[in-house]
# Entry
Amino acid sequence: MAKFHSVFDIIGPVMVGPSSSHTAGAVKIGRAAKFLFDQDITYARFHLYGSFAKTYKGHGTDVALVAGILGYDTDDARIIDAFTYAKEAGIHVEFIEDHSAVPHPNTVRIELMNGHETLELVGQSIGGGKVEIVELNGFRLHLSGNHPAILVMHNDRFGAIASVTEILARFEINIGRMEVNRKDVGKEALMTIELDQNIEPEVEEALRGAKHILRLAKVVD
Amino acid sequence: MGSYQFRTVKELVEIAQQKSMPLSEVMIQREMALYELPREDVFGRMEQQLNVMEEAIERGLKGVKSVTGLTGGDAVKINTYLKEHVPLSGPVLLDAVSKAVATNEVNAAMGKVCATPTAGSAGCVPGVLFAVKDQLKATRDDMVRFLFTTGAFGLVVANNAFISGAQGGCQAEVGSASAMAAAAVVEMAGGSPEASAHAFSITLKNMLGLVCDPVAGLVEVPCVKRNALGASQAIVSADMALAGVTSVIPTDEVISAMYQVGKRMPVAFKETAEGGLAATPTGKRLAREIFSN
# Structure
């Protein structure tokens, strides 16, 4: 399946260097984690694999990941000073080099925490600044991180998916890609929906109130 | 996006021939159809990328230094030489070299660039474009078109092989970038879509097997100079294709060969800083010095 669609995946992104996969891609994965967590972060742990583990200091991958969880974009001049800004924001960061085998050379596992909640996400930087989120809190998925998206944790019951798509249809929001994963029959399941636009607060509220919906997180563009 | 969809260079060239339009136009039409955007939006966004490239070149030509001090200042040297001498390789070629170096020096200094297709290979395309534009009497619109042409070829490579050094070695990164630039020069010079494809093939064939071996894992040594030499190759290949020279191996097969070579390339040569120049005594010493600070 084609992973690169837009001409701006090739002629772009506009970014702070030095590496599209190790710097810009890392910013994007960090940003996706921040938006999906959607809470104050007090502790962030980054497990680095493959080329990320070997070269992260040289490429500024560590700085870039931290910039991402601060919500910066890939062309933000503050990236270079992200550690200072994280400290000011009260975020403690830790990096762990993990040399176990992974399917993709540029892989990171991010754990975000505060006193109440944790999020665990696995992201891959697939080249040219493009990324893929392949795991979220134990669920396998394929989220590009390049488009707005909503992730809906729901009970695996009849009508859960229909209740979400019905709301999106009512607000005339187009679905670009959709994927449903569950850990077991009848248990918690995760809907990953990539959209053409960011959703308005009223849409979000409607979705949160929908039948069988447990939690909602979003990636904004 | 129907009739503007292409997966291979063969399909891309066929669409351009059937519709009697330049390759850049196929790319523009495909982007418009795919995202349901008006032409101004697609064209305007590419113009912004062009502006970023121009700013990076200007900044690099004034002189920058990377955090490590490994790179920076060479663009100024080359540019000064260019003003005081008639370069043996010709003014256009060396101008492309200085502008490619300028861009990559800015990137290494954690400055703002436009990835083309990656940040590590960000110098080839703008270096070539801003060097050939005067001789080819290109308008600003022609320059934007140049970028769409490079993007069309880049999309095919990215989806059928790879464009990152970590996945396929430098052949995938600077190799792709310089081949993309070569194809776009041909279109800007009035060559046929087919000639663009030949220029692309001629360039990438000469890049096959090129490893990604950055000293200390940094996008500095040898990346900056590889972009410079990649830019020069793009212009030479374009001239060859414009002269009517063709590639015996079709473009899509060249891309496939690059993919196979990259697949079988040891991990030590894929951006891990464990082989090639990174593993030389000097490369290792520099890495130790940089990381002890």
